Amino acid sequence: MKRIILFLFAICLMLPAVAQNNKALEKALKKEYKVKMKEFKKEGWKIFGSTRSLDVALLQHYQKLAKDGEYNYEIVGNCSRFKSKNLGHQACINNACNIYAQKAKRKVQGDIVSDIAGNGDDASGEFDHFYAAYESKVQKEINGELEETFSVIKDNKDGTYEMQTFFIVSESAATRARIRAYENAAKESGAAQKYAQKVREFVSKGFNPQGESTED
């Protein structure tokens, strides 16, 4: 009973800090929203493929990005100088997947080099094929885990357009995608199989495509 009382007391002490953090986050998001909307309007971006206004789409995007209890990250796919809007949109999706895959590869490559090589095992050459295969597999697997929130388009006034497509990916979904990619890529790499436990740990680490590690 004493433990329960202490636990409830600890929660009561934490609540003001949580509320303060939520208010700070809400304030920061409002500021970010205003800056982004000003940028969109100044540069001539308009909502694409949605009946919602750009204001509402951006607000909902930020709300999902800040969803409580989840690590959510933003990825933006860019494409330019296209004439077909549908093809341009697909190019933006491919660009977002490629961005994530490249960063995921660099992250696991850095961990492998610093840890395995740091322990005296010269395996740098052995992993070259794995890195390329892993990047390719991540690009394929992450495609199904990205949640598209909205796209904006800009007319270049010369018969071509530019587009930005905004996505949100949750860390839990992204981790599943990376593990699937690793399992498929490892089949093609003796080095990945040799150091399977270590490499799987690296792949499973929290990873923020915006560049910040979420490792505990």
Plain-language structure description:
This protein is of the alpha+beta class and 216 residues long. Helices cover 60% and strands 15% of the residues. It contains seven helices and four strands. It has a four-stranded antiparallel sheet with strand order 1-3-4-2. The longest helix has 42 residues, at 2-43. It is globular, with a radius of gyration of 21 Å. 26% of the residues are buried.
| Average predicted confidence as pLDDT | 86
Strand order of the largest sheet: 1-3-4-2
What percent of the residues sit in helical stretches (DSSP H or I)? 55-70%
β-strand number? 4
Poorly predicted spans: 4-9, 13-19, 212-216
Strand residues, percent: 15-25%
Number of helices: 7
Q: What pattern of helices and strands is seen along the backbone?
A: HEHEHHEEHHH
Rg calc: 21 Å
Sheet with most strands: 4 strands, antiparallel
- Structural class given helices, strands, pairing? alpha+beta
State the distance separating the first and last CA atoms. 31 Å
Shape: globular
Short description:
The chain is α+β, with helices and mostly antiparallel strands and 216 residues long. It is built from seven helices and four strands, in the order αβαβααββααα.
